[in-house]
Amino acid sequence: MKKLTASLALWAGITAVAQAAEPITLGLNYPRTGPYKEEGLAQMRGALLAIDELNERGGVLGRPLRLSSRDTASRPEKAVRNVDRLAAEGAAMLFGGSSSAVAIAASKRAAERGLLYFGTLTYSNDTTGKDGHRHMFRECNNAWMSARALGQYLNKELPNKDYFYVTADYTWGHTTESSLRQTTGSEALGQHPGVKVPFPGARMADYHNALTQAAASKAQILVLVLFGEDLVRAMRIAQDLGLTKRMQIVAPNLTQHMVEQAGPGLMQGVLGTEPWTWRVPALEKSERGQAFVEQFSQRYQMYPSSSAASAYSIVQQWADAAERTKSLDSQALIKALEGHSYSLLKDQQQWRAFDHQNLQTVYVVQVKPRAEVMKDPFKQDYFAIVDRLDASQAAPSLAEWQAERKAAGQPPTLQ
Questions:
Q1: Which residue positions does the secretion signal occupy (predicted)?
Q2: pLDDT digits (tens, 9 = 90+) for 128-140
């Protein structure tokens, strides 16, 4: 009997150790194909770096992390199916984006599964606005924050100009155009016209038609509310039509990969915003951020983009919440994240409690001349930071957020 008891105790101990060592799966729902695939690849790289760092320190709650990924192709219906597959694998948390429509649809499905969903690149106001819910946390800034930063700069440096908007016809495009029109005083459609182009699946003819209308206008500022490869294609047509020389081009949400795809010569002088660039840690005196830039650069032989930084930060913040709560339970993690302030890759950030929007500084950037870019070892020193706006000035207030929710028929608190 004593031998049996000892054997059972030994078996229980071995089982406990085996269970403790069982990997925790994190699910990345990202675009491996489609117009935003470069931003998706950057998310994968940032996530893997974070997971490797955490595993070197013993994992989370004594268990190693593993990454499982699925391709959304920037299509909401595919992203929703991916959530089901990742949940079936036992994923403890899901994250990803690059299309706000994808992030919104996938996060709602994740909520039905009782899983947290962190948005990486999802700039639509709707993500944490009218479509926000308790299981969604957005790491990047929203369209309002970009628009207020850009509006501050444009109103100061290029006042009283006529605008022309070319906009991707989905939630990110709509809320970004609307926000920038308000902050720049360009709401009057007669004076500041615009054209919508399909998303996804816009053809070259769609861009050519829109930009031909821009060329025929009196606008001095051309706002391309486009992202990824869509922006690159539009920029090539704009150059062919001579618009890059006669207009100030604004791309509200720029990324390192867009400039890389188009080339700094074509993108020279374009204005936009970024929540993070590899130059930001030095600007903000963030030692952790500078270490991230160095580690990422050594590993991948390139600088990390805002896409990579977002995915890296999400994994680190989820892990931090899990360690603080000693739990993987979504409800416990939600409570731990709400209102939590931290400094990781830049200055202070906070997961705002009432809408789960990440509050952070937004930077207005302008693409440097090609000659300057080419002096850099990686030839990726694309952005000059020309202005900044901290979260207290950029983010919409509780009253503004509740008004937006009310207008959409949504409750005044996250459900």
A1: 1-20
A2: 999 999 999 999 9
